[in-house]
From TrEMBL:
InterPro entries, alphabetized: 4-carb_acid_sugar_kinase_N, 4-carb_acid_sugar_kinase_N_sf, NBD_C, NBD_C_sf, OtnK
Protein name (database record): 3-oxo-tetronate kinase
Keyword Nucleotide-binding recorded: yes
The organism of origin for this protein: Albimonas donghaensis
Annotated Four-carbon acid sugar kinase N-terminal domain residues: 3-227
Record's signal peptide: none
Amino acid sequence: MLLGCIGDDFTGSSDLGATLTRGGMRTVQYVGVPDGPADPGVEAGIVALKSRSIPVAEAVAQSLAALDWLRAQGCGQILFKYCSTFDSTPQGNIGPVAEALAEALDASGVIVCPAFPAAGRAVFQGHLFVADRLLSESGMEAHPITPMTDPDLRRWLARQTRGPVGHVPASVVFDGAAAIGAALAAEQGLGRRLVIADAVRDADLMALGEAAAEAPLITGGSGIALGLPANFAVRGLLAGGEAQWDGQAGRAAALSGSCSAATRGQVAAHIASGAPAREVTALAAMTGEVDAPALADWAAAQDGLPLIYSSADPETVREAQETWGGAEVAARLEALFAETARLLVAGGVTRLIAAGGETSGAVVEGLGLTQLAFGPDIATGVPALRAGPELAIALKSGNFGEADFFERADRVLAGEAG
Ligand SMILES: Nc1ncnc2c1ncn2[C@@H]1O[C@H](COP(=O)(O)OP(=O)(O)OP(=O)(O)O)[C@@H](O)[C@H]1O
Ligand SMILES: O=C(O)[C@@H](O)C(=O)CO
């Protein structure tokens, strides 16, 4: 294994894997730290954690355990993947995990760059933009767990770290890899372990990747991986060849616990198309009015792609959280989706689509999946995944996908053109 990656959530890890696979690396996503060694031939391994919003000490411990496993597989370079909207609180977890990994690897002048231009995320003058809005005016300021109220990544990250935070501005990044390398070395000389790097175009990410060819540690969104496969390819280290995707026949189902605007639009489009959909309200989940067997039975009785969703608007979510407590509702819904996924697959579903990072994590863990192989892209940041000989899945980050995402995902998983 050449490149070892640590992802702080499951959907974000599959977003990263899609980029590396497109770049020509044989990539596997592992669900948590594996018990045994990786299969031979894996060039990039991603240990997907659910560490984005857990207590800092646990996130650090899990990430260091992932690092140990990846180093034991021979990885000479480590990539820490977090969200392109830098989802974190003033306590962490991006800063503490990045610092712990840097210390363990004796790395300094480490790139911190969540930019993902294809999804509208750009870093300019140290500030993160989502399309044409500053992060703190993009809707992310109202995120229920990690409200992003400051778009200045240098300031936000500095709150989370012990050491000072550096910056490589766009004016340097535009000058290419050599200029970036010199700037990172200068930041390192000033004792700055972590360095925010500007990037507004894929070309900037390619240049950052080239500059990081020898870096023991890189951190960022999936965009920061754009330039990395070429570093291994020029050294003749990649086996090459297209990853083959055999479409998955059989029955499909979709589960959505994501309440993002993008997902709510996708749910609405699915319903408007006349496809079968069943809502699970927080009330029904909390009172036990609906349970997993009933949901799985309903899905089995539908033609087409049945969608089971708890996706709701912010006001409805807030009311549910005030009534039962946010953590309690989330835990109940996630457990319900996990159990429903188990019953669906046990009942013969072979294509499963999950929407929402936490929801996808619960589904993947509920199904007891251990590793995922990458297929073609369904949408930017959302690949088709093979979870077993008879199971293909898609894990969608809340903010990703076009309006027809669910139908498109089903088609791609089935092996048809998107
Ligand atoms: N109707 C609802 N009321 C309250 N909470 C809900 C409701 N529906 C879902 N939830 C909870 O909201 C959370 C949604 O998080 P999830 O990560 O799945 O989606 P997301 O935030 O849109 O996606 P991402 O993390 O990829 O951006 C889950 O914990 C889910 O259980
Ligand atoms: O970077 C992103 O936006 C995604 O890969 C993600 O991590 C969302 O959960």
